[in-house]
Amino acid sequence: xxxxxxxxxxxxxxxxxxxxxxxxxxxxxxxxxxxxxxxxxxxxxxxxxxxxxxxxxxxxxxxxxxxxxxxxxxxxxxxxxxxxxxxxxxxxxxxxxxxxxxxxxxxxxxxxxxxxxxxxxxxxxxxxxxxxx
Length: 133
Ligand SMILES: [Fe+2]
Ligand SMILES: [Fe+2]
Hints:
The protein is mainly α.
């Protein structure tokens, strides 16, 4: 269970709301893995997560573009890399999933992405607001 706390708040309402939904879907995936790690149900839970990751990263990138975020290209590449990993995982022929493997993928996304890359955008917006004040 991964709990969303203020720790993960980027400071942009719409993005924080979407990140919370991502956490809900990741937790559903973790629950599924605990119940039954065989291919089909976990692939379904992965797809359920993937759909929302796609929605979220598109909106986040549009929002960044609107605010002329200078590190958008680098950020886009990180999103694309994560989507690719999820897609590959779903497509792999296999009998079952390892909890560790999926946990580390999600932890990597949360620890390295939301808490660093998305947060960097939050800081950028704060600075912009201060400059315009
Ligand atoms: Fe992001
Ligand atoms: Fe994000």
